[in-house]
Amino acid sequence: MRKKLKFKTISLPKLNGLSPSLESTALKVAEEQGELARAIGKFRGINGEKVSMSQKEVLDEIAKELLDVAQTTISMCFVLEEEYGVDIDQKIDEHIKKLMDKGYIQVI
Question: Per the database record, which ranges form the NTP pyrophosphohydrolase MazG-like domain (predicted)?
Fold first, then answer.
């Protein structure tokens, strides 16, 4: 019996009206990742702020920030494809193979 891989598929659009460069997008990824870390710190109470939000509100904030990171990362994929000719689909396949080779994904 063959075990199926579990995927979480997300499709995010190319943003209109922007002309991102590789550098500006990388900086935006870092900014969004910082906002995600801040939200997690708030959830865990490790950032020194008094938590005035419910757990649900904090988890919603974490999800929103995570999606901001994903959107910015997808934007960088568009830049790599359109400006530099990188085949992102091929890179995804190579990434999955790497995960399998390292034993992070096992197909039986």
Answer: 22-100
